[in-house]
Design goal:
- There is one protein chain.
- With 194 residues, this protein is an alpha/beta fold.
- The protein has a single domain, classed as Rossmann fold (3-Layer(aba) Sandwich), CATH 3.40.50.
- The chain contains nine helices and seven strands, in the order αααβαβαβαβαββααβ.
- It has a seven-stranded mixed sheet.
- β5 and β6 form a beta hairpin.
């Protein structure tokens, strides 16, 4: 694990430096989807419970709202970007896009498909995020979304753009309730929500 951390820290620093240089070109206030995919794959590799959750393959569900065009586009971009990542925690991975049908139905979908990671696309309201967090309480699952606000409303991992650099935001109590266990060294690289 120490050896892995020696590689993660420089990789995240290098990625943040690269993104800082690109910050002047950035038009929006969100971390680009390709960077989110790369960071999520790296962070997932440091989840001590990922192997038990995933089995022999990391299944990532990418959830989108079918009647929200930006949600559909973001899901497609994220699916392509995550699929291009190498093995996650040394395991092969598969990505599936799935339409949002409400929190209870989605919790059942996660269980039925043996999802290890869930990425929530654009377009979810704060209320939907809170309801989803409640529905996933006790599930063994790493959830992520493209905004820091999502982490404030119960998604385990969110992404923020601070001074043109990507910043990871983790909802620590939610991570614990969803059996996501990251080392203290990795948590030091994140904004930790109590």
């Amino acid at each position: 694990m120490v050896l892995k951390l020696r590689f993660l820290v420089p990789a995240l620093v290098l990625l943040a430096s690269w993104w800082g240089a690109m910050g002047a070109l950035a038009q929006g206030s969100e971390v680009p989807v390709s960077v989110q995919a790369e960071l999520l794959a790296k962070v997932a590799a440091y989840d001590r419970n990922l192997g038990g959750r995933a089995g022999d393959q990391v299944r990532t569900l990418i959830v989108f709202k079918p009647h929200v065009p930006e949600s559909v586009r973001t899901a497609e971009r994220f699916k392509d970007a995550f699929a291009s990542q190498g093995p996650v925690a040394g395991l092969p991975h598969v990505e599936e896009a799935t339409a949002w049908e409400g929190p209870a139905a989605f919790a059942e979908t996660c269980k039925a498909r043996r999802a290890a990671i869930v990425y929530l696309s654009a377009g979810f309201t704060d209320e939907e995020l809170v309801a989803l967090a409640q529905a996933l309480d006790g599930h063994d699952l790493l959830t992520a979304s493209g905004t820091a606000g999502a982490a404030q409303h119960g998604v385990v991992l969110g992404f923020d753009l601070v001074s043109g650099k990507p910043k990871l935001v983790i909802h620590l109590p939610r991570a614990s309730r969803q059996h996501v266990s990251l080392s203290a060294a990795v948590l030091q690289l994140m904004t930790v929500l109590p």
